Request: fold
Amino acid sequence: MTTYHPSMARAWRAARVDNAMVQSRTARVRTRSIKTTTKDHLLRLALSMVDLTTLEGQDTPDKVRSLVVKAKRPFIEMPELPSCAAVCVYPAMVPYAREALDTHFQERRVGLASVATGFPSGQIPLNLKVAETRFAVEHGATEVDMVIDRGAFLSGDDERVFNEIVTIKDACGAARLKVIFETGELGTLDNVAAVSRLAIAAGADFIKTSTGKISPAATLPVTLVMLEAIREHYLATGHMVGMKPAGGIRDAKLALHNLVLVAETLGSDWMTNEWFRFGASSLANDLLFQLARRDDGGKHYVSPRRFSVE
Reply:
């Protein structure tokens, strides 16, 4: 088990983000134009990276089952399209999602992610965070999306945040752990960089921007800073860590800009849903809209009503 030491926190907090460089790089990415076969490939790749998500108080077993069917076969009129990477639900919905995943389109593999640890605030005792994580994994979750205690981090209690991640990672067993920062509450890119280094050192398999409940969420500058922390760790250790921007990525154009950042910062090894995800719901439909238009040669209007709404 990874052990915390105060010198680690000093190193996380010491490095400063070059804000001008971040703004310059992300502004340049926004001007990139991607056309023809490359765009078609990236749209399909982005679809395969979506964690199709429902995290609402009105979620029902039937809604979750419908989400699973869509994740496995996103658009029935284009069966050649890839499945989404995973479905992401609350712990109570995990058993229903697991049942549906094991029943529908069994030849198509889709992961099952569960939020945990008092999502979205993270403000519950650690023993309850552990119990919630174990419940999700025992009922079939293959991935756990935990939220950190932002209050502890912002007050300088890095040891508490670090040890909670280590503890939840242990509770995950074989399931992969994504650590959510809720970057909209962190205030500065320096804090985003510091918490990224903290989570990676504590054993996160993925680092994730946001819960989708707070704005701003997955902005390009935040994503770039987190990708740079992953790059720094990889160059030092050879160990890969995944990235998941979530919240606010609603259209294909922004998704492709994110993929450009990944390719430029981390390289081709991260251009797969094993190492990069989008936490999104509406994004999937815009990707399908763009793909359907391209399949039709752009000759006809494609009604959004052709795609299911979660």
